[in-house]
């Protein structure tokens, strides 16, 4: 059995439509009553949007119900589904903790409550019945003030038992006017020993090369090979990995056809830039990681060797995978030892031949 690593999944978009609908029916009838029934809700929730900005508005629907009290409900089902249906051995789950705190509180109280959110997600993620190595990535957000984003960076360092990195989210087209803030925060994170990734070069409006030197991985980054292939040599030299989420680009209107990703993979492989294939928002897309793999293969965007290279890259670039090898190689070693033991046993049991 193959086991996989998922490096780019949002807590807000990870809830599959059926689970979210059941929660609304039981706890938020004010939301469920907006729809005629589940099919109507699923069609609304999973349909493609015209732009990334329109697509991101859907996150607010889920963030509003992922309160401290409700998070165990969502996180438990997320981990269960990832283990049973996706064969995940490793999962980095990203979100903005501030957006899970009560909106009616003043900013300083919401900042204080972020630690409680991190602890709830961290504790609920550790499920002995579904043994996935799970860590959090805390997202700074382009719509949040500097003070909140700074607190997010410092909490990432403080809660290293649960958190493996920070991110910057909210739509990469909005970063420009605050670039000095973000580079300062990323530099601060690196000084604190916190790993870094960031949503950048996802859309044509989000090309910010000045952020790249601060990132250990690049969230999406598909516009580098598409629009700025001259940067690929620098990306390869830094050992940065692109977190490519194929279905996202169709859902956000960033790409018209998945075939456009063939250029992304071809140019990255040629330049020696690693790619980890991810889901981004598995629930929002109603798509799981193995389907992302299959879709790329069946449409001849990559071959099996390239897929295996991407799967290996995901474990290699994982911020908190605790082993030197990926789980598949461990299982292969076990099988080889069993075969060797079996062969040695046959030699010992073979009757002696006397002349």
TrEMBL record:
Alphabetically ordered keywords of this record: Hydrolase, Metal-binding, Zinc
N-terminal signal peptide: none
Swiss-Prot/TrEMBL cofactor(s): Zn(2+)
Domain Adenosine deaminase, first and last residues per copy: 5-320
Top EC class, one word: hydrolase
Pfam families, A to Z: A_deaminase
Top-level taxon of origin: Bacteria
GO cellular component, one term: cytosol
Gene Ontology biological process: adenosine catabolic process; hypoxanthine salvage; inosine biosynthetic process
GO MF annotation, one: metal ion binding
Enzyme Commission designation: 3.5.4.4
Family: Belongs to the metallo-dependent hydrolases superfamily. Adenosine and AMP deaminases family.
Name of the featured protein: adenosine deaminase
Species of provenance: Leptolyngbya iicbica LK
Lineage of origin: Bacteria, Bacillati, Cyanobacteriota, Cyanophyceae, Leptolyngbyales
